[in-house]
């Protein structure tokens, strides 16, 4: 039996009475979970173990009506609000101490219209849910590298994935959305209705309301693509990065790659002799015809003598899930990012120095190759405006037990600082592991930021939705 005890809160947040919670329970179809309930600890857990918070109320919404009710409730009770889709926020935005979590995780339906090449995903769907449905028709859109990531948070922040250079960011393919705004209205965003809202949702994060569904334009992909990972010894890192950098200057748009400076995990397909050793992995997906793909990846195979060439024809869905076992929930994580215009040799030296200096083996550096379709979208067409820089650096501090985590996060911040000068100083909100106005402003050019404030003023003037990379309303 769930408890009906009053939701205990800290001094800074209002206490919600038993009768009020009872009313909420009576008006939602999903579940209302409180401290003391048997499923409370499961329900409050998020992917990143660094954020161990105790919400006063968790509403697991089963549809738009529940979301409307939860927003009304949060607003009337003055509770801090966290919105949760796939629960992968690195900064911990999808949980809140003593507030309300609007949890969309039961809302996972994905419907596909193969003729129109469109899919509509509910706000709590993950990329595993999405790819499962769309690949039944040989269709896809740019999704996360780890399939448990939420479609919602990923797309609203931008969305960098294996189809980026061929089909753009996930947000570039967002053509419509249903949004419950701070005043509990249901608003549709599309090119025809509230286009300012659609513009803001394409990169402006969760600032404008709870997105109950997202509609995407789809593209033919696979079902088999050429993809996988090439593993090189750590000692070849300089050759691999500089050789890869040269290849990126003329790569076809069908080919999306990234370089990962990491530590070899103890997986059976890697020789035991390299387990626990520094290793460079080059991740590869070619989204075009298989006969062209082999030629396109040939240069990557000879960057150095590989430990293992694990690139070949693979179902797109399997590629989307290939990294999942390495990124299970429950570790401590902090990401920070820098958008880079170039990787001159001295930047490569700095990257390598920083890599050798990492305090924890699980911490790693990813350099995503951007450009292609992403760069062909106009700078002011979406809230995601950093379009033309060719690389996105993601610095990942990761610790299984959290023991040296302060050291790890400092290492990550210092690494970002050491490299940010090779680009416009910009960050990518989805790879930013903390809030703060400086971080948000660093993620958008000044004119984009000003326009986002205007949209925020229109849809959330009281900043009800502030647990995010927050765009503060002007009032
Ligand atoms: C293991 C892992 C792999 C990742 N891989 C990639 C990658 O390949 N490419 C990339 O670009 N990013 C990647 N990320 C970053 C990821 O895109 C962001 O963390 C994103 O915010 C996660 O979305 P979510 O729905 O899972 O998270 P949540 O924690 O549920 O949500 C994060 C925030 O997004 C907003 N939000 C989420 N859903 C909604 C909604 N329906 N309506 C309104 N607001 C919403 C809210 O502000 C919420 O606080 C990865 C993160 C992790 C942990």
Bound molecules: flavin-adenine dinucleotide
CATH architecture of the largest domain: 3-Layer(aba) Sandwich
Major β-sheet annotation: 7 strands, antiparallel
Radius of gyration from CA coordinates? 22 Å
Using the alpha-carbon principal axes, give the shape. Answer: globular
**Count of DSSP E strands?**
18
Mean pLDDT value: 95
CATH class of the largest domain: Alpha Beta
Strand order of the largest sheet: 15-12-14-13-17-18-16
Task: Count structural domains.
Answer: 3
Number of helices: 15
Q: How helical, in percent, are the residues? A: 25-40%
Distance between the termini: 44 Å
Q: Low-confidence runs (pLDDT<50, min 5 residues)?
A: 1-11
Structure classification: alpha+beta
Query: DSSP strand (E) fraction?
Result: 15-25%
Walkthrough of the structure:
- It is built from 15 helices and 18 strands.
- The protein is of the alpha+beta class and 475 residues long.
- Helices cover 29% and strands 23% of the residues.
- The chain is globular.
- The protein folds into three domains: 18-103, 2-Layer Sandwich (Uridine Diphospho-n-acetylenolpyruvylglucosamine Reductase, domain 2); 110-220, Uridine Diphospho-n-acetylenolpyruvylglucosamine Reductase, domain 3 (2-Layer Sandwich); 224-431, Vanillyl-alcohol Oxidase, Chain A, domain 3.
- A hairpin with a 5-residue loop joins strand 8 (174-180) and strand 9 (186-190).
- It has a seven-stranded antiparallel sheet with strand order 15-12-14-13-17-18-16. A five-stranded antiparallel sheet has the order 5-6-10-8-9.
- Bound molecules: flavin-adenine dinucleotide.
- Residues 47, 83-90, 93-94, 104, 123, 144-146, 149-150, 152-154, 156-161, 205-206, 210-211, 327, 430, 467-468 line the site of flavin-adenine dinucleotide.
């Amino acid at each position: 039996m769930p408890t009906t005890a009053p939701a205990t809160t800290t001094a800074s947040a209002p206490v919600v009475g038993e009768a009020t919670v009872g009313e909420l329970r009576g008006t939602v179809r999903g579940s209302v979970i409180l401290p003391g309930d048997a499923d409370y600890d499961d329900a409050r857990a998020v992917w990143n173990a660094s954020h161990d918070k105790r919400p006063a109320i968790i509403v697991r919404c089963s549809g738009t009506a529940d979301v409307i009710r939860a927003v009304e409730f949060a607003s009337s009770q003055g509770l801090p609000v966290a919105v949760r889709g796939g629960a992968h926020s690195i900064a911990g935005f999808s949980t809140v101490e003593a507030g309300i979590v609007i949890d969309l995780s039961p809302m996972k339906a994905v419907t596909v219209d193969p003729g129109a090449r469109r899919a509509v995903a509910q706000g709590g769907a993950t990329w595993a849910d999405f790819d499962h449905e769309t690949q039944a028709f040989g269709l896809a859109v740019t999704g996360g590298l780890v399939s448990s990531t939420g479609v919602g948070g990923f797309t609203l922040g931008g969305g960098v994935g294996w189809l980026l250079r061929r089909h753009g960011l996930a947000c570039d393919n967002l053509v419509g959305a249903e949004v419950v705004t701070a005043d509990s209205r249901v608003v549709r965003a599309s090119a025809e209705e509230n286009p300012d809202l659609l513009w803001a949702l394409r990169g402006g994060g969760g600032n404008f309301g709870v997105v109950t569904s997202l509609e995407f334009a789809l593209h033919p992909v696979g079902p088999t693509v050429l993809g996988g990972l090439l593993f090189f010894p750590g000692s070849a890192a300089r050759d691999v990065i500089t050789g890869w950098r040269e290849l990126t200057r003329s790569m076809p748009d069908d080919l999306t790659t990234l370089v990962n400076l990491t530590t070899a995990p103890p997986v059976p397909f890697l020789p035991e002799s390299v387990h626990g050793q520094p290793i460079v992995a080059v991740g590869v997906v070619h989204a075009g015809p298989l006969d062209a793909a082999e030629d396109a990846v040939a240069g990557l195979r000879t960057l150095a003598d590989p430990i293992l060439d694990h690139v070949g024809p693979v179902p797109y869905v399997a590629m989307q899930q290939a990294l999942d076992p390495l990124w299970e929930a429950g570790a401590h994580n902090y990401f920070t990012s820098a958008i880079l215009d170039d990787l001159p040799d001295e930047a490569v030296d700095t990257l390598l120095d920083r890599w050798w200096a990492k305090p924890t083996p699980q911490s790693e550096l990813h350099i995503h190759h951007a450009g292609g379709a992403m760069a062909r979208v106009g700078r002011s067409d979406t809230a995601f405006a950093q379009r033309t820089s060719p690389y996105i650096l993601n610095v990942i501090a990761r610790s299984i037990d959290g023991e040296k985590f302060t050291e790890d996060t400092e290492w990550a911040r210092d690494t970002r600082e050491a490299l940010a000068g090779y680009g416009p100083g910009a960050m990518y909100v989805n790879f930013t592991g903390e809030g703060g106005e400086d971080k948000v402003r660093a993620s958008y050019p000044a004119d984009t930021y000003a326009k986002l404030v205007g949209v925020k003023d229109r849809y959330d003037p009281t900043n009800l939705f502030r647990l995010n990379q927050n765009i503060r309303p002007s009032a």
